[in-house]
Amino acid sequence: MGVDPGLTRCGLGAVEGRPGAPLSLVSVGVVRTPADDDIGARLVVIEAEIERWLDELKPDAVAVERVFAQHNVRTVMGTAQASAVAIVCAARRGLPVALHTPSEVKAAITGHGNADKKQVGTMVTRLLRLDAMPKPADAADALALAICHVWRGGVQHRLADALARARSAPRPAPARREDA
Amino acid sequence: MGVDPGLTRCGLGAVEGRPGAPLSLVSVGVVRTPADDDIGARLVVIEAEIERWLDELKPDAVAVERVFAQHNVRTVMGTAQASAVAIVCAARRGLPVALHTPSEVKAAITGHGNADKKQVGTMVTRLLRLDAMPKPADAADALALAICHVWRGGVQHRLADALARARSAPRPAPARREDA
């Protein structure tokens, strides 16, 4: 499950699949909260909706967009706060939480890290064999995060497998962290 | 109850009192989470501790420091995320959540908005008639937030009372928001 965090629009998307096999759409949506509600009320709505998704879909992992403070400061604070809600919802259930940067997601989905929203949406539509591009862009971005996570997770699994094999070999491999 | 949000140290402080009467300390502490834990684990620890405080102390309101992106970007993201956890913990119980800026807190406690941490700590110690300054500074700041909230809340109550009187008077007062 992917979460494109935001207060005004928080994209949610879930996909099923594994690296090297076709992916399929499980669910896609967006949580909207009114800009004139107070921050507490907005975060509670976002939390309730994420909880509902986690209850119903029981995802294996949650991928959340990593937030940077490079954009509009006011927006970024809200984005960081919405991301915290998504992260804590997943983590308190013991679900693995992965943070992917926007350029990691774009690179995974389109092949280049500076792709625009439309290119990401087009590739998401194609990869999931959808009839139309998911709208709004936040919903497509959440699916892109989920797809990116399946694929990167696959790479990490292969790395972990390779390391496990290396460790069981006669000459010990040097210790390293697998989740770098 | 006041929360000075942070991932490495999250200050918590609760006071009892009302404007114009002496304040007393209810509880003070700090939640620490290891910098090398992942963000999910850290936020879950902060959430659990804030929940424990809310369960035990049943505060009337929660005051959280308003986060700005003017400082170190990396720290600010963590601060925004910890603040989101505090806000959502309070809001989902229906508790009022107030956000006060650092300068509002400093002005309320010391009389000037650019006071340093030591001046704030000294005034908190004096106002609560403590034997020693609460340590670390995050704990003292959380108490300062709680005190600021009691006092500003008092101002807001008086404003609301005045407005209610004005509304019940023959000439209607213009509509306005009380929580500006």
Automatic annotation (TrEMBL), chains A, B:
The RuvA-RuvB-RuvC complex processes Holliday junction (HJ) DNA during genetic recombination and DNA repair. Endonuclease that resolves HJ intermediates. Cleaves cruciform DNA by making single-stranded nicks across the HJ at symmetrical positions within the homologous arms, yielding a 5'-phosphate and a 3'-hydroxyl group; requires a central core of homology in the junction. The consensus cleavage sequence is 5'-(A/T)TT(C/G)-3'. Cleavage occurs on the 3'-side of the TT dinucleotide at the point of strand exchange. This is Crossover junction endodeoxyribonuclease RuvC. InterPro entries: RNaseH-like_sf, RNaseH_sf, X-over_junc_endoDNase_Mg_BS, X-over_junc_endoDNase_RuvC. The active site is at D4, E65, D138. Mg(2+) 2 binds at E65. Mg(2+) 1 binds at D4, D138. GO terms for cellular component: cytoplasm; Holliday junction resolvase complex. Belongs to the RuvC family. Pfam families: RuvC (PF02075). It comes from the Bacteria. It catalyses: Endonucleolytic cleavage at a junction such as a reciprocal single-stranded crossover between two homologous DNA duplexes (Holliday junction). PROSITE patterns: RUVC. One of its GO terms (biological process) is DNA repair. Keywords: Cytoplasm, DNA damage, DNA recombination, DNA repair, DNA-binding, Endonuclease, Hydrolase, Magnesium, Metal-binding, Nuclease. Its cofactor is Mg(2+). Homodimer which binds Holliday junction (HJ) DNA. The HJ becomes 2-fold symmetrical on binding to RuvC with unstacked arms; it has a different conformation from HJ DNA in complex with RuvA. In the full resolvosome a probable DNA-RuvA(4)-RuvB(12)-RuvC(2) complex forms which resolves the HJ. It comes from Microbispora cellulosiformans. Binds 2 Mg(2+) ion per subunit. The keyword DNA-binding applies. Its EC number is 3.1.21.10.
